[in-house]
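Chapter summary example.
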Amino acid sequence: MEKVSGLAGVLAIVIAVVAGLVAIPGVDMILVILVLGIIGGIAAAQDGAIRMYLAVLVLPAVGAALSGVPALGDYLAAIFSNLAVAAAGMSASLIVRRLIEMVMGAVGGLTGGSSEG
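The structure predicted for these 117 residues follows.
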């Protein structure tokens, strides 16, 4: 599963860049990037979760700042916007995984039953 997840993450980034440069008619590229990001986040390390959450916040701001660059600004803004969507998908997976771990830990604590007292 880690290889599939890693490949999906790489594809999300590559497609985010390509879709920022070239319009692909008839395909909702944002949805494709989001789904690939979600799949990419399934096996992503929880250690990097904070950086991924930060990327979701920073990438749109960077794209907006670069939009003023003559001749390339619109492309750069689109690329960074697409990368933010990929990061949001990965972040969503990381959040869900963390919530599942918390719930499973709480359930395990309830049923683990150490008999003190």
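To summarize the output: The chain is about 80% helix and 0% strand.
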